[in-house]
Amino acid sequence: MSCRFLKIASVALLCVAVSSVFALGLAEGAAKFLGSTTVEGPVPSDFGTYWNQITPERQCTWKTVEQTRGTFDFSECDIVYNWAKENKATFTFHALLWCNYGIPAWLRNLNADETKEALTAWFDAVAEHYPDLELINVFSDVKRSNLIFNQLDTLIKALGGDDGEYTFITTAFKMARERWPQAALFYSDINTIQWERDKGIDLIYTIRKNGAPIDAYGLDAGDLTAQGTGPMKCFPSDRLKSALQEIYEKTELPLLITGYNISTDVDSTQKKCFAEHIPVFMQTEYVKGITLWGYLYNLSTLQCITNLSISCSGIIRDGEDRPAMTWLKEYFNFQEDSTARDSTIADSTIAIGSSLHLQANTLQAYDVFDLNGVRLGRLRAYTMDEAVSILKNTSDIKTQGIYMLRSVKNGTVKQVRIAR
Q1: For residues 244 and 151, what is the distance between their CA atoms, to the nearest angstrom?
Q2: Domain ends where: 310, 331, 352?
């Protein structure tokens, strides 16, 4: 399934290949992905239990891959990429140009022409190594208000300059489209929901006006708490809804939540924010996926705002679920499914698409079987009747006949006749 944006009635829709071959993740069978960044080294053994999308935090950045000019080492990135391929998860390449953490130090010693040569070589190396990328963060964290902006003068000149029009970002997107004509390309930035919404909207509007082939806007979503001298407070859900609506209407692009985290040691606050924010993301049709910025405590670049000497943005700590993770499992009605990983049914498994509109507090999981008892996949709905409707209308069932739905929660079985 191609992960591109299809233009339908002037609305861009992101098609994300969320497979149920291995019943991957909390949101398996839902209408959008729920993923996380991952740590350096091997992907944690429990990653696929919870997440069906994966973003390498620093493993695929220019700074990591080309530590010495002209020598490209993709071995760390390969670990994440290969895991995604093997587990049928959505892989997000992060990032071609990540200005906060991903620019190699040796680039500072080059002039504009040399920088353009090095940057072109970097894009070419990634395209040669990963020609089939589907979802690419092309440029990240470079709106003018970011502190890093003034340190990128040579890079900006190498890509055509700025002159108030973010020309250099437009150039980078055009370079990416030349190399990945089928991929979904997006820009991502920090603090663009609550604190610097207008600046982010202006950037996206400007590069689109200038012809950047951009398919989505990534919102870091690290600004969804209210800071101050008192206790941390969650950004209210009604204001979050209106902010997302404004961003979508003014940019006319699907949205990706690219780095959601509630960085605090106060479990009750973290849980409260998850419970208020995640349903908004899931219920908003034009939000096409959610990526947590790390789920393991103390294993992320993001530092705890209450104590800069530690990291506390994870929702699993020392092998134990923090209350936010417990809530997340309850919201998705998550139950470990051992049969879904049985290799005897893997070859006959198909992805069951979902067009459900999330409105209630928890989703129910329903397994789909043919009359021979072969498990075809899983979908999620709030009631058995809604599950029947989804099954009847999915394009993933190609053959007419009788199928069976079984509730994972209570074992209730429903026979469904599908006509094609």
Answers
A1: 30
A2: 331
Nearest to 35 by CA among 178, 170, 135: 135
Clarify whether residues 204 and 261 are in a common domain: yes
- The boundaries of the domain holding residue 164 are 32-331
| φ, ψ (nearest 5 deg) of residue 188 | -135, 145
Residue 406: name the closest of 418, 419, 396, 381 by CA: 381
In angstroms, the Cα distances linking 366 to 32, 112, 375, 377 are 17, 57, 11, 9
**Residues 317 and 344 reside in one and the same domain:** no
**314 and 345 co-located in one domain:** no
Q: Are residues 241 and 363 in the same domain?
A: no
Task: Please give the single-letter amino acid code of residue 395.
Answer: S
C-beta of residue 290 within 8 angstroms of C-beta of residue 254 = no
CA distances from 15 to 3, 182, 184, 213, 252 (A): 5, 12, 9, 17, 17
In order along its 420 residues, the chain shows pLDDT tens digits of: 334 443 322 223 344 433 333 347 898 777 789 999 998 999 999 999 999 999 999 999 999 999 999 999 999 999 999 999 999 899 999 999 998 789 999 999 999 999 999 999 999 999 999 999 999 999 999 988 887 887 899 999 999 999 889 999 999 999 999 999 999 999 999 999 999 999 999 999 999 999 999 999 999 998 998 766 678 899 999 999 999 999 999 999 999 999 999 988 899 999 999 999 999 999 898 999 999 999 999 887 666 666 665 667 899 999 999 999 999 998 887 755 544 433 222 233 334 443 333 333 466 788 898 887 788 888 877 788 888 988 888 877 888 889 989 888 777 888 899 987
Full DSSP string of 61-113:
SHHHHTSBTTB---HHHHHHHHHHHHHTPEEEEEEEEETTT-S-GGGGGS-HH
CA proximity to 297, closest of 268, 276, 267, 275: 267
326: left (phi over 0), alpha (psi -120 to 50) or beta: alpha
